[in-house]
Write a structure and sequence with these properties.
mainly beta, Neuraminidase, 24 strands, eight-stranded mixed sheet, five-stranded mixed sheet, 329 residues, 4 helices, 40% strand
């Protein structure tokens, strides 16, 4: 028993140390703010740069992705139809699948797409939270469900993740060559998963779980004395580094892509928590991220909720890269 407790304590300490936020959390500079027009169901839940196109998904639309283009002071969304084949069996337990199925008609989407990423060939990868599955869509809009390793969900659940409805997989990033795929478990517990394409199939090389942790953090002072569960709300891969959007605490962090260790963090709370941009709900609502050399796109899934200035449309922020770039020590 004592040996088991000692091992558990060491594992918990290792997880905490690997993910502890560094002391330097510099503010990000807001360059532009764009309300999104043309997403009738709203709920912008993912962003990705695919070639010259900025693409988005909605967690209430199972049949389209959206191409976003700057028009004056807005982003115009053009719906692009996708062909979704029948969904394969999910590794999630029956109870979680049933809850998602019952919620589908009410919320407006059975698949609950929560993220999008692209490879160099132009394939789009859409993450279905409801099914814990990934749909790969080619340039012609034809979709194919990836056969992810069965061990991925099993290992995640054994590590304390993917246990609660609406707190499952929330972020996705894919390597340019399409050979590695990262997934983020949202909260309670949050975590990062990695699977590799090897030998003609997706595999867990040892353990698919890079990180699993549960560490509530204090909310910003504007929300009073409360603690919010730490969260991963989106992923982006840039320069062989993994960037995590941690929306409940208004920051994004650069992490080692293989070990998930935090290297640097930056805050966007300086502008997101301004009274004019703040939402009444006591947690962050940013759920989409795309990082590039010049800056980053951060998307807000407001669910139709008005913010302080009355704006009810989805919002995308464009922020500047740090002075010395995202990859500086």
């Amino acid at each position: 028993m004592r040996a088991g407790l000692l091992i558990g304590s060491l594992l918990l300490a290792a997880s905490t140390c690997a993910s502890a936020a560094p002391e330097r959390i510099a503010p990000l500079v807001l360059l532009a703010e764009y309300p999104v027009l043309g997403m009738p169901s709203g709920n912008l839940s993912g962003l990705a740069q695919c070639g010259d196109e900025l693409l988005a998904v909605s967690d209430r639309d199972d049949r389209h992705i959206y191409r976003l283009q700057v028009h004056e002071q807005t982003l115009l969304a053009e719906a692009l139809a996708i062909q979704v084949p029948p969904v394969p069996p999910s590794a999630l337990p029956w109870g979680l699948l049933a809850r998602a199925w019952l919620a589908g008609p009410w919320r407006g989407g059975q698949l609950d797409f929560e993220g999008i990423s692209c490879d160099a060939a132009g394939n789009r990868y859409l993450l279905s939270e409801a099914r814990a599955s990934v749909l790969r869509v080619d340039r012609q809009g034809q979709g194919e469900w990836l056969r992810l390793p069965q061990a991925l969900v099993r290992q995640a659940r054994a590590s304390g993740m993917l246990l609660q409805a609406n707190a499952l997989l929330e972020g996705i990033a894919v390597a340019e060559d399409g050979q590695r795929l990262w997934l983020a478990a949202e909260r309670q517990r949050r975590g990062l998963l990695l699977t590799h394409w090897q030998g003609g199939r997706w595999r867990c090389l040892g353990n698919c779980v890079l990180l699993s942790e549960s560490a509530p953090l204090p909310a910003p002072a504007v929300y009073g004395e409360r603690r919010l569960p730490s969260s991963f709300n989106a992923l982006s891969l840039h320069g062989e580094k993994l960037f995590t959007l941690e929306g409940h605490h208004w920051r994004l962090c650069r992490r080692h892509a293989q070990r998930a260790e935090v290297e640097r963090c930056w805050s966007y709370g300086e502008f997101a928590l301004d009274a004019s941009r703040r939402y009444r709900l006591p947690y962050g609502m940013a759920e989409a991220l795309q990082v590039d050399a010049e800056g980053a796109w951060i998307g807000v899934d407001n669910g139709g909720q008005p913010r302080g200035d009355g704006e009810q449309r989805p919002i995308v922020w464009r922020v500047a890269a740090p002075a010395h770039g995202w990859l500086a020590p």
